[in-house]
Amino acid sequence: MKRLNRVFALLMMLALAVPVYAQNAAAAPVPNKGDTAWMIVATLLVVMMAAPGLGLFYGGMVRAKNMLSVLMQTLVVFCLLGVLWAVYGYSIAFTEGNAFFGGLSKAFLAGITPDSTASTFSKGVVIPEFIYVSFQLTFAAITPALIIGGIAERAKFSAVLLFMVLWFTFSYLPIAHMVWYWPGPDAYTSAAAGDKATATAGFLFQKGAIDFAGGTVVHINAGIAALIGAVMIGKRVGFGRETMAPHNLTMTMVGGSLLWVGWFGFNVGSNLEASGAATLAFITTLLATCAATVSWTLVEWVLKKKPSMLGAVSGAIAGLVVITPACGYVGPMGAIVMGLIAGGVCYWGVNGLKRLLGVDDSLDVFGVHCLGGVVGALLTGVFASPRLGGTGVYDYVANKVGVYDMFGQLIAQCWGVGISLVWSAVVSIVAFKLVDMTIGLRIEQEGEREGLDVSSHGESAYHS
């Protein structure tokens, strides 16, 4: 009888434990296969932006004797920084530390397994951490590669690599942490918990700056660095006296088109979920690019009497840049207005401001990326307003869209723009100076005249 009682008691304990176990198991969110599949595709699209997209886009704009060097620089920079991202970059950017730098708890991707998860922007929704690491790797690796356009055709290959390591470490990583690091939506269970969670986030996140996919982190950050580099390395030999026209606009068009397609991974992937919000980022990215291409083309047509292919593809890139920080916050009509503005402003940046500054920014990185990024970051604060068709900013404590304060949001956006400009500029000046003092920034004049393809790499892109 005692044995039967023990068996009965054990069965009762098991019966009571099963619901508790099931409840605990249900409490742990499981990645959705659709979200995971989309993030894999989005990551591959951004890889395509770097190789071959950016290489062909930049390569077509340089002279034939430097085509191979640009392809080499964009590819190797992307790969080098991809390795450093895994070694320490991801940990510094996306773990808790202080308001400016994360920690080293995930250096060498320590503790991350196929079962590890990363938060999205919805409570209770996660994706595998490995794909989040990979997706953010593509951002971290392509952003410094954009700087190459400012110093193309005269920088040493070794100098490019050393500068990129320094800039990646001391500019990209802290700015990414300042803008994008937060503990995730599930930490916002109450007002007190929300305040405590926000206190551990990055500096610009705490200021309320919003940047959906990288207006500050990517474009302003890299654009101002390219301008600093162009000033410090000096003008190309023969600049202003010899023709330096793009050698193959067909390649530039192909590269620019690959960038546009890949940018959907960049912008839409930043939603981290295959949801309705992702479709908003998709259509705004599409419309802003179309609008900016039309805008640039019309402005150039009026002012120069002939619309150019280089102008049209530059307009497309300007549209992509301006919508990057805004794509998940603004409506379709807001995206069109932003694109129209960006086409005109960036045209002036490339054709007017560049001449005023007297700088040899070889491939117009500052005029398109930095200027477009500034315009995009500021206009995000305007067109994110629900009154103008935007989404507003979500309140994770109240679990609904909060009351939108356009003036307050513009102040927050100014913080993002200002900090990105100053931080990247200072780091760039120091990094370029250190490289110049140690191994030298610039290739010898004879090698520059011969072309970097042969003088730096012993190869040629073309054989006559």
UniProtKB/TrEMBL annotation:
Top-level division of the source organism's lineage:
Bacteria
Q: Which key words are in the record?
A: Ammonia transport, Cell membrane, Membrane, Plasmid, Signal, Transmembrane, Transmembrane helix, Transport
Note the Pfam families from the entry.
Ammonium_transp
| Domain named Ammonium transporter AmtB-like: residues | 37-462
Q: Which residues cross the membrane?
A: 37-58, 70-88, 130-152, 159-182, 212-233, 245-266, 278-299, 308-326, 332-350, 362-384, 410-432
Q: Where does the UniProt annotation locate this protein?
A: Cell membrane
What membrane topology term does the record carry? Multi-pass membrane protein
Q: Which InterPro entries match?
A: Ammonium/urea_transptr, Ammonium_transpt, Ammonium_transpt_CS, NH4_transpt_AmtB-like_dom
Where is this protein chiefly located? membrane
Molecular function GO terms recorded: ammonium channel activity
**Similarity annotation:** Belongs to the ammonia transporter channel (TC 1.A.11.2) family.
The protein's name is Ammonium transporter
Organism per entry: Paraburkholderia sprentiae WSM5005
